[in-house]
Model the fold of this input.
Amino acid sequence: MLTFTKALIFDMDGTLTLARQSLTENVEKELIRLCSKYKLYLVTGSNYAKVEEQLGLDLMLRVFDKIFCCNGTVAYNTNLDPDDEFGALEPEMIHKVDLTDHYSQADLNHITSVLLKYAAKNHTKYKTGTFVEWRGSQINFSLIGRNCTTEQREDYVKWDKKSGDRDKAIDFLESEFKGYGLSFRKGGQISIDITRIGWDKTYALNNISESPDDCVFFGDNIVPYGNDWEIAAKCSSSHAVKSPDDLLEILKTY
Done:
């Protein structure tokens, strides 16, 4: 059966933008061109504040139909009607789930304690701050700490590729929390996304009107243990992106 591309789904960090950086003018122009031909969706592990900081509110409203944060578990409608005087003026949250709906505070405290102990014993060259970031439906765990500088981040990326630092952490956490119903995936360059099994990026497809067979996904983490792995497999096709510049070359065919 023939399928037709109706929607393009993008990751953010490492795909549309460099990690934690703003969108470039060239990528912005390409998104504006594409939104006249396809529905555009964003599915990121980041929270809403980071998305607005990196993409800008005007572009979010102009090109995306919906934006999905925290790996799709928090959904925002960005296709607003400018002629509806009673309608929303900013991205409107339309769906949200939370770990507190499934785990007690004692469980969450235990998970956090295990993460912090593991970070304390880990032999990463740099340790900065914010090793555990609470995102409601997701816990973001970073062994170097999310407060690292760009230079420290780049150093950790090299170390992680050489040592498999995050892979080892995921193996430990899967064993430690067996039976908890938790999923552990590498998010971005320096962190691990911890959420419930099934709350990966494919969760966003529940709030997308197009069939996955009509969608194409673009992401930089389409690898085992990567948080783009499941959604890339679910869509009709996908592109493993190395950088925003690489993305621009790929998008020339669309």
In short: The chain has eight helices and eleven strands. The chain has a mean pLDDT of 94.
